[in-house]
Amino acid sequence: MTNEARKLSDLHGEFKRHSHELYFSKPTVARRRELILERQRIAGEIRRIKSSQGSAEREQLRIAGSSDQSFVKKMSSKGIIIRYAEI
Fold first, then answer.
1. Phi and psi at residue 45, in whole multiples of 5°?
2. What is the pLDDT of residue 14?
3. What is the three-state SS of 4-68?
4. Which terminus of the chain, N or C, has less C-beta within 10 A?
């Protein structure tokens, strides 16, 4: 496994943990805000890594757990297409 592949795997796991906490643990408003911002940071890092791998692979980018409407809108405005959601 390459260094980038390992990093993507770690980021995906972190994203899923944050998503699970966001959707299933009933966080406070402040914690919910922190989780959403952290998920956006992680998604940005995933996008940065994927975009450095070339346009063919960038087309395949999928981000799991992205059901927040504002998050999906922000990603789509940056050219990221959310193809499926997974929690």
1. -65, -40
2. 92
3. HHHHHHHHHHHHHHHHHHHHHCCCCHHHHHHHHHHHHHHHHHHHHHHHCCCHHHHCCCCCCCCCC
4. N
Residues, the chain, total?
87
Low-confidence ranges of the chain (pLDDT < 50): 56-59, 64, 66, 84-87
What separation, in Å, do the N-terminal and C-terminal C-alpha atoms of the chain show? 24
Q: Where are the domains of the chain?
A: 3-77
pLDDT at 84: 47
Q: Which residues, including other chains, have CB under 8 Å from residue 65's CB and lie 6 or more apart?
A: 15, 16, 18, 19, 22, 23, 39, 85, 86, 87
